[in-house]
Amino acid sequence: MGFTSLTFEDPARHRTLKTVVWYPAPPGTQMRETPTAPIFIPFIAAKDAPVSDARARWPLVLLSHGNGGSAINLSWFGAHLAAHGFVVASVDHPGNTYGDTSPEGYVRGWERPRDFTALLDGLLAHPSWGARVDLGRIGAAGHSMGGYTALALVGARLNLSVIADHCTAPATREHPGCDELRDVDFRRIDFAEARASYKDSRVRAAFAMAPGMAGTYEARDVADITAPVTLVLAKGDELMPHQQHGLHLAKLLPAANTVVLDDAAHFTFLPECTELGFKVAPMLCRDATPGTRAASHARTNAEAVAFFRGALEAPL
To answer: Which listed CATH number (3.40.50.720, 3.40.50.1820, 3.40.50.2300, 3.30.1360.60) goes with 2-311?
Structure first.
């Protein structure tokens, strides 16, 4: 598979969208190890390789990273989908990406699906990529807040009032999931804007890994979801306890395909760690059962390929 970097501008919101794209490359393309961050193992791909001509147009998956993460660190997932016949586009969300993040940037999660609507507009208008993407076969995927983002693109709404109450109340403000939220001035947040719909009708399916804010949804927040959904939940999720978050959301989406990874923790959906990673970022390298991250990735990748092949099989 190949990968490349693109940049799109959203002038209406004054946001620059730095984008990574993974895609099928021609047979025989020479690939090499490509680093992401020193704490994570490299991925295998060919930088700026040609796009395969096996198809005129390829299905597209929009891929969203978690709070404070980055597009390139979902390469284990994006490159795998590309090797199985998908173009995958991921953006560094301004204000909530590695090196550019803040508590308010985290809270303003509704900007994330809007990033992908702008990215999709730009990609489809691009002189090269616009002709290679199948407009009738577009899905979304993501981890943590990226999982929320994928669900928002098919109709989920962000219920910030629950977060504001939970993370500012004296009895609960010290909970682990409130680390970056307890000191936000929620008086500056427009809760109606946050809870508005950012559904993009071009997105036909959503694959959410340990989706963020899962415990905050009410039935009305997911009532607009009619597209196929897969939830991949981490039973050992230390940030969002499984019963109160992942399973809560699964009950609100009874038509969704729900996959529970018994050995996974919240950050299992980051790349496998290097020795340095285990030393300097143990939280990001922790799995509920040590040594199982590769197996969890393999299961997740297999589920994603099967899901998107089924959900995006027929064009609009």
So the answer is: 3.40.50.1820
